[in-house]
Every structure is written in C-alpha cells, then in structure tokens.
UniProtKB/TrEMBL annotation:
Alphabetic keyword roster: Membrane, Transmembrane
Protein name (database record): Immunoglobulin V-set domain-containing protein
GO MF: transmembrane signaling receptor activity
Source organism phylogeny: Eukaryota, Metazoa, Chordata, Craniata, Vertebrata
Provenance organism: Xiphophorus maculatus
UniProt-annotated location(s): Membrane
InterPro entries, per the entry: CD300_family_receptors (IPR050671), Ig-like_dom_sf (IPR036179), Ig-like_fold (IPR013783), Ig_V-set (IPR013106)
Length: 150
C-alpha cells in the first residue's frame, strides 16, 4: 500500500515520457468538450485517469475511469477501441492548459498521452454565423494518426 506522497510521485509524467504524443483539443466557453485518451492494448482492465498540472498530487487527478461522473467531469472507457474519454462540461478559460492521460499501474504509472486544451469564446449574439461545436472527427483523425506512430 502506497502513501499519498509516494503514490503521487509514481504518478508524475516525467517517469514515463516514452511514446507519448500530444493531443490538441479545443472547446468553447460554457460548452462541453470530450478529451480522448488512447491507451495501449493490455491496459483495458487498468484504472485510467485524467490529471492536471504535473500530476504530483492526488488533487491533480480530476477524474478516474472508476468514477462515471465527478462534478463537471464524466467518463467512459471504450475497451474495444482502447480509448478512455473524459467529457468536461461548462468550460471556462481556467480549463485551458495541459492535461495528462494516465494509467494506474504498480510502480510508475503510464502516460500514453499529453493533452493540450484550448478554450475559445463562442460568438453568441453575433450577426454572422458561428459554429460553436467542437469537431469530433478531427479528434478521431488525431488518434488514428497517433496509433500509426506507436
């Protein structure tokens, strides 16, 4: 059994930089965005999570695959496609930044992906047409491309 400090230290992304790719995701303030976290075959039954900052503290973990919903975060794990998805609702500019997709394992956790989330203003009350829906197809294209690089 690990203490919170040693567990957090084993969670730090610096311990596993190999093979990690950056996923670029954008969302609109006040809307929702889905963050895809692809992982490797063999980790289907492992706990996955999304964390913020440098993931050194347990408080940096936003949500785990064992939690269907936690505050503004909801999760799903497609074990056939090997993608852990986290949906973040009611986005604000504070949500912009770097995230890590993690897989909990004995020793050092795995970090198959880094996520860069950009928050944009949706043009409400505009006289011209604005599309404020994130492009899900581009996310899947990124994941497909990343899998080829593995």
């Amino acid at each position: 059994d690990s203490t919170p400090l040693s567990r957090a230290a084993s969670r730090h992304p610096k311990h596993n930089k190999g093979g990690r790719r950056v996923i670029h995701v954008s969302g609109y303030e006040g809307k929702t965005v889905t963050v895809p976290c692809p992982y490797y075959a063999g980790f289907e039954s492992y706990e996955k999570y999304l964390c913020r900052s440098d993931c050194r503290q347990d408080a940096d973990v936003l949500v785990k695959s064992t939690e269907a919903t936690k505050g503004r975060y909801s999760t799903s794990d497609d074990r056939r496609k090997l993608i852990f998805m986290t949906t973040i609702s009611n986005l604000s500019s504070k949500d912009e930044g770097r995230y890590w997709c993690g897989v909990t394992k004995v020793g050092f956790d795995k970090y198959p992906s880094e996520v860069s989330l950009k928050i944009e203003l949706c043009c409400i009350n505009s006289t011209h047409y604005c599309n404020c829906t994130p492009t899900v197809q581009s996310l899947y294209s990124q994941i497909k491309h990343m899998r080829k690089l593995y």
